[in-house]
Amino acid sequence: MPAASHRPLLDSAEDPVLVVGLMSGTSADGVDAACCRLAHPEGQGLQWKVLGTAVLPYPVELARVLRAPEKLATPDIARLHVEVGRVFAEAARAAAAAASVGLDDVALVGSHGQTIWHDPRGAAAGVPATLQIGEAAEIAERTGCLVWSDFRPADVAAGGEGAPLVPFVDWLLFTDPERWRVCLNLGGIANVTILPPGGPADGVAAFDTGPGNIVLDHLAGSLLGETRDEGGGAAAAGRADPLRLDRALADPYFRRPAPKSTGRERFGAEWTERHFGPLTGLDRPAVAERLATAAAVTVESVARALEGAAGTPPVPQDAEVLVAGGGRHNQALMEGLERRCAPRAVVPVDQRGLDGDYKEAVAFAILAYESALGRSVNLPSATGARHPARCGKASFPPPGGARRGRS
Fold first, then answer.
1. Which of 27, 215, 356, 387 is most open to solvent, judged by the fewest CB atoms within 10 Å of its CB?
2. What was the pLDDT predicted at 217?
3. What is the pLDDT of residue 403?
4. Distance (Å, rounded) from C-alpha 108 to C-alpha 285?
5. 187, 213 contact by CB (below 8 A)
6. 111 - beta bridge partners?
7. Which H/E stretch holds residue 132?
8. Residues in contact with 205: Cβ distance below 8 Å, sequence separation at least 6, in sequence order
9. CA 355: distance to chain centroid?
10. pLDDT along the chain (407 residues), means of 10
């Protein structure tokens, strides 16, 4: 555990406190929220318990706009910054209610925000940059809580990718003393954290492998008229097209060495339509083929990453792969991963004590908590940063609005 190296904003790591974590990922379908009880005394393991969870979908029009952020003008971004912050505030309220606690007992809210731009290498404009919206001052005002937000820029400023940040939490929660583990998150983008047995934090490797659900969701919208291929049934009914799969996997990102991160900027609508179009006039078998091929892109890119395609050592065959995120509900993805990653065991993270739908919300509760205690939470081995960083910024509630509640 990294020692505190900055002035803390929380009173003590000894006594448990309540922290709400808020997350919305690349899919931009809403906010996941988790109310947790946390304590992490110096020299000891993290003590954690999830008390309540909630999900607050974005209004349909807001979700649509957030999925095409490159079209936004400055006034739109300013307005959305506030609107998204208000949705996040309501999600925090819902999580506290689900935990049967009052917001005045919540010590801290950790908000990831909604990414609308992620270019940590400066490929588009020559300046490394990442931008998450969701005004934290709105969250503080509407909840009366201290809010910790805007985690990624500190890592980017230190020369890192700004992502992934969850590996710090994976390391705290899931390092096994004897067995290699891989934490795989199948969100809009898929990412892996590779945990050596009993290893120190600087031995952790982590990176985005490529698309998780983002391509599948775009195809589902275009071909099925749905927000997703629910359960992966349509993809499971098809067979991947080998030529289309090979062309998609020829994208240079899949061969780029770690550390690396990606997002909608690379694997969004344009990429999907280039590799899977045309998306009109298709019969049912052709629709199933497109979805099956998209699922195979995710499966194959993850499997190749475990085999060392990103320049990391191959993950041992007896490793356990713990899967979180919405993609674990997709039959085609899970069956493909079980087959392609064998003999490694592919297991939903739910079987190891954490609801996989809320893993990242829990993670940002923990990241906020550790940062507010003055600790660094990025892993330079995962992000490529020059040094550890205390990630995030504080937004304060109105006078008398928050108490650093104990539980």
1. 387
2. 97
3. 41
4. 50
5. yes
6. 22, 149
7. strand 129-133
8. 193, 194, 258, 312, 381, 382
9. 14
10. 65 91 95 98 93 98 94 96 98 99 97 96 91 98 97 98 97 97 98 95 96 98 96 98 98 97 95 96 97 99 98 98 98 98 98 98 99 96 96 93 44
Is 118 exposed, middle or buried (CB count within 10 Å of its CB: 0-12, 13-18, 19+)?
Answer: buried
Share of the chain above pLDDT 70, in %: 96
pLDDT at 294: 99
Class of domain 17-165+357-395: alpha beta
Residue spans of the domains in the chain: they are 17-165+357-395, 169-352
Task: Give the number of other Cβ atoms within 10 Å of residue 375's Cβ.
Answer: 23
* CB half-sphere exposure, 362, CA atoms < 13 A: 26
Can you give the pTM of this predicted structure? 0.94
* One fold for 17-165+357-395 and 169-352: yes
State how far the Cα of 141 lies from the Cα of 88, in Å rounded to an integer. 12
Pairwise CA distance, residues 113 & 151, whole Å: 9
Q: State yes or no: cis peptide before 285, omega within 30 of 0.
A: no
CB-based burial label for 317 (10 Å; 0-12, 13-18, 19+): exposed
Phi then psi for 31, rounded to 5 degrees? -115, 125
State residue 405's pLDDT score.
Answer: 39
As a whole number of angstroms, the distance between CA 372 and CA 11 comes to 9
- Report the DSSP beta bridge partners of residue 119: 129
The bridge status of strand 189-195 relative to strand 129-133 is unpaired
How far does the chain reach from its first CA to its final CA, in angstroms? Answer: 23
Are 378 and 201 within 8 A, CB to CB? no
Q: What's the confidence (pLDDT) of residue 8? A: 73
Residue with tokens 């899949």: 254
The per-type count for the chain, helices as H runs and strands as E runs, is 14, 13
Domain covering 169-352: architecture = 2-Layer Sandwich (3.30)
**Helix, strand, coil % in the chain, rounded to nearest 5:** 40, 20, 40
Measured between alpha carbons, how far is 245 from 287 in angstroms, rounded to an integer?
Answer: 15
The whole-number pLDDT of residue 401 equals 62
